[in-house]
């Protein structure tokens, strides 16, 4: 699907969907900016990169997170789940109250 995150979520909610998997740098940023993500999973791979594209560079502000769970796999990957406590919000654009949906 393509388009405004709020419209996408409204369309999917009308179909009875309650949980969405959001992936891709620009897509994640758009859904975070719209205040539509309440949980985020970050996986760290044990490789140091000298250069790269930051996944969260376009947020325009900080997001407060609270650790839910963290685990390490045998191959060295570390996966952490966080609850999003404070979100970048688009109240001025949508008039919404910026409560996170179950995404």
From TrEMBL:
- UniProt domain Bacterial bifunctional deaminase-reductase C-terminal: residue ranges: 6-78
Q: Which InterPro entries does the UniProt entry name for this protein?
A: DHFR-like_dom_sf, RibDG_C, Riboflavin_Biosynth_HTPR
One Pfam family it belongs to: RibD_C
PANTHER family assigned to the protein according to its UniProt record, in alphabetical order: 2,5-DIAMINO-6-RIBOSYLAMINO-4(3H)-PYRIMIDINONE 5'-PHOSPHATE REDUCTASE (PTHR38011:SF11), DIHYDROFOLATE REDUCTASE FAMILY PROTEIN (AFU_ORTHOLOGUE AFUA_8G06820) (PTHR38011)
Write down what this protein is called: Dihydrofolate reductase family protein
Origin species: Pseudomonas bubulae
User: What is the phylogenetic placement of the source species in the record?
Assistant: Bacteria, Pseudomonadati, Pseudomonadota, Gammaproteobacteria, Pseudomonadales
